[in-house]
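Researcher: We're teaching a course module on how sequence relates to structure. For the next exercise, students receive a sequence and then see the predicted structure as tokens, so they can try to spot secondary structure elements on their own. Here is the exercise chain.
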Amino acid sequence: MILIGQYDSSFVRRVGIALALYDIPFEHRPWSVFGDADKIAALNPLTRVPTLVLDDGDVLVDSYTMLDHLDSLVPAEQAMHPRSEPARRHSLKVTALASGLADKAVSLFYERRLHDKASPAWEARCLRQMRGTLAALEADRAARPGPYWLGDRIGHADIAVAASIRHMGDSHPELAGLEDCPALAAHCAAMEALPVFQQISQPFIPPT
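Model: And here is the predicted structure for the students to work with:
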């Protein structure tokens, strides 16, 4: 497989970490949606990352589909989204909240970066959504004292939350502190200390 995109994207990083944890060989091409747009568009008409080229040449164009496909390649007991309910539903919910947090962080970054004057109303809306999501994730994680979100084994929820919060802090340093979210702070510190998180990582590179 070929994973396209830079690891400062939480979405690309999530897929890279999952591939590594599943011990699925892949090639990484750290293409940028700005500097390498034509190369990405030739594979993915949305011109976004992650883009995943499968062994048979098919191309997946969003991280949810990629992770679902990777889960299908491993035995049920190894899948990082649980196969049974209600654990599966809860894992998907936490992952969706983390993905939404990352989406809002990206939206806020582009609002501030690409416009001469950012919209105060849009900034306030994004910040309100991000803070509300952090509060929801904090309450959920605080109620689950285990080493991982859904038990004693790492899952997609763990990866998504840590990767999204890392991206939020890197792209918006003023939001990096998690003083009001001690459970999330501890969770992210534990995830980032794992060898796979250190391997699948890069400093944030602002688009130019």
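Model: If you want an answer key for the exercise: The two ends are 28 Å apart (CA to CA). Residues 31 and 147 are 34 Å apart (CA to CA).
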